[in-house]
């Protein structure tokens, strides 16, 4: 569980009330005499981690529900994730789109405030290593949020320091290349200045290993074919750069694949050797746990199995796609820890459910649906290995034997027979099963250029409701929230197709 006590938005004066604009919900965090001690800076960077609290829920709705892993057209179509799943062109007014924009820029502005104050008053931190660490943490968090946003929205307003709401009114959207330049610079600094690990009360902070892992993913994503002129893929062919970083993580010998797949997600085994970095939550019914497990399950199941309300209502259940379920071979040991396939509701009816329960342990449920005491694994070691295989298959140095060995290690843990001459399509199919419910599928399809062909073939096969639209290049990124367009007409242009 998170030991660094991240949810410090309650510390009034660190990053207080919003301005008038949702464009960048920020405040002048230093006006009340804060940032005058070393502890002030530590509290402030902890408050920046707090903005990640609901970030995994965004991954569920914007990534997993967008992919061929989830089929949720909805009965009435009133849930945000139904519209996202159906590729509607009216998404600009959704609360989910608005909230992810605001939450990400809130985090970016908190990071920027820490960085500004370090430059102005960082001398109060007598330990140079601690000062560099706090700067590295702020840049890591800023880069993580900007990387997610560039994948979701394409061009973005580029904030490298604290700005007031009135100043934000003159800052338009910068090209994706410029956003990436800041992301890469931030992650390079974080990789060079953050420790490889922490102990005690600092467990859960950003590490150099996490920075290298995300930077590798940045290079992988930039390298993908440019299907959208303002999308996250630039065709840069930087697979070699990604591979070098992945090998640094691998050769650190700090991580390993666990023998038992289910043990990776065990509430009693957090921080295991598989986890490179996770978003952490506090346990004990303190009201600062995770919400993301609630984003997966049926409300009808919760009424019987949990002491609190929550979950997806009957008109908007997030069903696992039949195509995904049928992809698993008989005896695949990943099925049971990943899916719940039936349950009995409060009327005694057996429900043919199909939802993820990978992150749920009913015996550990917190005080309410916002309080699951389970960390979110943002980077797993198996992902590091499979990204290495992807780099090799995309032309980076390495051999077919290395690719086959990586995939067969994953299959062996799943109780499956080995394969040979693994192709990119074979690798992606194995990835899909390995990371089901971990919200990686959509981005992998985008960065490998497979997204249009795979998604449209899947819709033709799976969409019995007839509610899903054909996927076009415009759907690779989301619209700018409508309320952002309304703040100042002409400041931003809407992404095409919306």
Q: Would you mind describing this structure in some detail?
A:
With 498 residues, this protein is mainly alpha-helical. It folds into 2 domains: 8-288 and 377-487, Serine Threonine Protein Phosphatase 5, Tetratricopeptide repeat; 292-362, no CATH class. Helix content is 43%, strand content 5%. The chain contains 18 helices and 10 strands. The chain has a two-stranded antiparallel ribbon with strand order 1-5. A hairpin with a 5-residue loop joins strand 7 and strand 8 (350-351). Mean pLDDT is 92; it is low at 1-31.
> Roughly how much helix do the residues carry, as a percent range?
40-55%
* Tertiary shape: globular
Distance between the termini: 40 Å
CATH architecture of the largest domain: Alpha Horseshoe
Elements, N to C (H/E): HHEHHHEHEHHHEHEHHEEEEEHHHHHH
Report the biggest beta sheet as strand number plus sense, adding barrel if it closes.
2 strands, antiparallel
Number of domains: 2
User: In which order are the strands of the major sheet placed?
Assistant: 1-5
Given helix and strand content, the structural type is mainly alpha
SS summary, helix count: 18
The count of strands amounts to 10
User: Class of the largest domain, according to the CATH hierarchy?
Assistant: Mainly Alpha
Q: What is the C-alpha radius of gyration, as a whole number of Å? A: 22 Å
The CATH topology of the largest domain is Serine Threonine Protein Phosphatase 5, Tetratricopeptide repeat
Global mean pLDDT: 92
Give start-end ranges of low-pLDDT stretches. Answer: 1-31
Q: What is the percentage of strand-forming residues?
A: 5-15%
């Amino acid at each position: 569980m998170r030991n660094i006590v991240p949810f410090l938005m309650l510390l009034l004066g660190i990053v207080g009330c919003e301005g008038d604009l949702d464009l960048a919900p920020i405040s002048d965090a230093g006006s009340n005499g804060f940032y005058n001690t070393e502890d002030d800076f530590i509290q402030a960077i902890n408050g920046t981690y707090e903005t990640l609290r609901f970030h995994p829920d965004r991954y569920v709705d914007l990534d997993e529900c967008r992919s061929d892993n989830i089929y949720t057209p909805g009965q009435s179509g009133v849930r945000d994730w139904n519209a996202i799943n159906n590729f509607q062109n009216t998404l600009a007014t959704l609360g989910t789109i608005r909230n992810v924009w605001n939450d990400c820029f809130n985090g970016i502005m908190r990071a920027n405030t820490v960085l500004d104050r370090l430059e102005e008053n960082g001398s109060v931190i007598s330990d140079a290593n601690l000062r560099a660490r706090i700067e590295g943490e702020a840049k890591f968090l800023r880069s993580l949020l900007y990387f997610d946003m560039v994948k979701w929205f394409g061009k973005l307003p580029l904030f490298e320091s604290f700005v007031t709401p009135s100043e934000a009114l003159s800052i338009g959207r910068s090209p994706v290349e410029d956003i990436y330049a800041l992301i890469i610079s931030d992650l390079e600094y974080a990789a060079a200045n953050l420790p490889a690990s922490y102990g005690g009360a600092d467990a859960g902070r950003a590490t150099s290993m996490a920075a290298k892992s995300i930077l590798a993913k940045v290079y992988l994503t930039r390298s993908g074919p440019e299907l959208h002129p303002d999308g996250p893929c630039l065709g840069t062919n930087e697979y070699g750069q990604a591979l070098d970083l992945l090998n640094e993580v691998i050769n650190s010998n700090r991580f390993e694949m666990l023998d038992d797949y289910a043990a990776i997600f065990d509430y009693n085994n957090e921080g295991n050797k598989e986890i490179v970095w996770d978003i952490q939550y506090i346990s004990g019914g303190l009201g600062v746990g995770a919400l993301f497990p609630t984003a997966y399950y049926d409300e009808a199941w919760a009424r019987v199995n949990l002491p609190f309300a929550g979950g997806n209502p009957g008109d908007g259940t997030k069903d696992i796609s039949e195509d995904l379920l049928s992809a698993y071979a008989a005896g695949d040991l990943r099925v049971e820890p990943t899916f719940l396939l039936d349950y009995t509701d409060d009327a005694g009816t057996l429900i043919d459910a199909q939802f993820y329960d990978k992150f749920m342990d009913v015996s550990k449920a917190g005080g309410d649906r916002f309080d699951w005491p389970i960390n979110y694994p943002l980077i797993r070691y198996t992902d590091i290995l499979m990204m290495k295989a992807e780099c090799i298959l995309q032309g980076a140095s390495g051999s077919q034997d290395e690719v086959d060995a990586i995939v067969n290690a994953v299959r062996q843990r799943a109780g499956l027979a080995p394969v040979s001459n693994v192709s990119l399509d074979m690798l992606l199919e194995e990835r899909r099963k390995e990371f089901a419910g971990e919200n990686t599928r959509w981005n992998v399809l985008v960065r490998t250029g497979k997204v249009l062909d795979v998604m449209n073939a899947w819709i033709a096969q799976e969409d019995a409701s007839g509610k899903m639209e054909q996927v076009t290049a415009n759907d690779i990124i989301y619209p700018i929230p409508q309320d952002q367009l309304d703040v100042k007409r002409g400041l931003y242009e809407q992404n095409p197709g919306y």
